[in-house]
Specification:
Blueprint lengths: L5 H29 L6 H5 L4 E9 L8 H18 L6 E9 L4 H14 L3 E6 L5 H10 L4 E3 L14 E2 L5 H14 L4 E7 L2 H4 L2 H10 L3 E8 L7 H9 L4 E5 L3 H13 L7 E3 L6 H8 L5 H7 E6 L7 H10 L18 H20 L4 H13 L5 E3 L2 H9 L4 E3 L7 E2 L5 E2 L1 E7 L5 E10 L7
Helix pairs in contact: 3-14, 4-5, 6-8, 9-10, 10-11, 14-15, 14-16
């Protein structure tokens, strides 16, 4: 080209290269801002030195299949933020789904297969009441840290060194449900719980709490969660004329029962108080797209839930991360509905606690890092409060102690490594999200809410 020397061409080429780098840096900055992370240096410069795996051990098929996707979303959300902050000790974090089918007999071989085929397994999350009693001893034998969503009573008094529970026992959940019923002045209560282990653990505590509150149990129905119709159980409940129904029946079973009760009760809803597990987008979608409809359902349904700290600094990032998983996880009709879902909230926090403990101990091995989880949860004098993995890593690099305050608030563990916390009364909104109504139910333990 006339007037262009070799020097001119080199300068033009360098200019174009610099321009591409500027555009790339700008694009990376947009990605970082999208998930709420400060800066782009970790994104641009990270070269992972290996990988570690988080096992998501939960039902992905079977009657409780709605639980697994909640937990997988928590893993993908937390690991996305961790990886964009350079990973854990330079290692990329991956999530691996392990389907227990909600059956303790199926869970053990699935977990053994996980160990046989997975390298660098550093953490396990999920493990519901359906299978926890059979798989937690396996995790502990392998010295694998586990954050389980189980309320089974056996974990109230047996110490497994590598087991952590970020949610109270089912007995506390039942007490919170009865507290809602008491606040609404209900006297006659029907119970409707699935025949799976995870649902049946609520029944005895609910009966005891209702009796202590001066209420009468007018019907107590055990639901075969593999059934498609509940005409007999629905008729028994309607005929007992309860003021309210306390229930847990996940997925299609809960949808079928409430639909049949509605129809047998002259197209009128009987007030329902569900467990925190009933705050589920699959359940909401199933009920509201049927004869009951949106307005009838949201006017008549309450659920106890652990308090979500919407006003805290951890929530905005959590919200962006969860919504960013839309399209990546099967079985979630509305990701907005996961923003207050018990399992998604607390397992996201659990992964952050574990990841920071790994950084603090300079190890991704459970035997080395597990004790630091309690130290980070408790904090202590002089500890810096952090609300994200990135903040925690920055503080640890400066030699500071840290205290993690998550989406679920502050985690105070007892000697069995169970965290108790405040409960609230939640109601669905028309878009499938939930909102707390009334004052806090208080901190609910095995017998009362205070």
């Amino acid at each position: 080209m006339e007037g262009f020397s070799t020097v001119n061409l080199r300068a033009t080429s360098m200019f174009k290269t610099q321009k591409r780098l500027i555009v790339l840096a700008a694009a990376l900055a947009v990605v970082a801002m999208t998930i709420g992370l400060p800066g782009t240096s970790a994104v641009a410069s990270t070269k992972f030195k290996g990988a570690m795996t988080i096992g998501v051990v939960a039902p992905f098929t079977g009657a409780d299949a709605a639980l697994g996707p909640k937990y997988q979303t928590a893993c993908l959300a937390a690991s996305q933020a961790i990886n964009l902050s350079g990973g854990i000790l330079g290692k990329k974090v991956n999530c691996k789904v392990v389907d227990t089918r909600g059956d303790p007999a199926d869970a053990v071989p699935a977990v053994r297969q996980m160990y046989a085929t997975t390298s660098n397994l550093s953490l396990v999350i999920g493990c519901t009441s359906d299978e926890a009693s059979t798989v937690v001893p396996v995790f502990d034998a392998h010295q694998t840290v586990s954050f389980c969503m189980t309320g089974e009573a056996e974990f109230d008094s047996i110490h497994f060194p590598y087991f952590y529970r970020l949610v109270p026992p089912d007995a506390a959940d039942s007490v919170a449900m009865v507290k809602i019923a008491k606040l609404k002045s209900y006297k006659n209560i029907a119970l409707a719980f699935g025949n799976d282990a995870g649902s049946q653990t609520f029944v005895a505590p609910a009966v005891a709490a209702a009796k202590a509150a001066g209420m009468s149990i007018v019907s107590n129905q055990t639901l075969d969660i593999s059934a498609t119709t509940f005409q007999t159980e629905a008729q028994a409940i309607v005929s007992s004329h309860p003021d309210a129904i306390l229930m847990e029946a996940l997925g299609a079973a809960g949808v079928a029962l409430l639909t049949e009760i509605y129809q047998l009760n002259n197209n009128k809803m009987i007030p329902v108080i569900g467990t925190s597990a009933m705050i589920d987008p699959v359940f909401f979608s199933g009920v509201t797209t049927g004869p009951v409809g949106v307005q009838n359902f949201i006017n008549s349904f309450n659920a106890d839930n652990q308090t979500v700290n919407f006003g805290g600094p951890a929530y905005p990032l959590y919200k962006r991360l969860v919504l960013a998983q839309a399209g990546k996880v099967k079985g979630v009709p509305n990701f907005q509905g996961l923003l207050t879902a018990n399992g998604t909230v607390h397992l996201y926090d659990g992964i952050n606690l574990a990841a920071l403990a790994m950084v603090m101990s300079h190890s991704t091995t459970g035997k080395t890092y597990h004790a630091d989880i309690l130290k980070i949860a408790a904090g202590g004098k002089g500890a810096v409060v952090v609300s994200s993995y990135a903040q925690g890593v920055a503080a640890l690099k400066k030699g500071k102690k840290i205290e993690y305050h998550g989406v679920g608030g502050v985690y105070s563990f007892d000697k069995y490594q169970t965290a108790f916390g405040p409960f609230e009364n939640d109601q669905f909104k028309a878009d499938g999200t939930t909102v707390a109504v009334g004052a806090s139910l208080g901190n609910c333990n095995l017998t009362s809410c205070k």
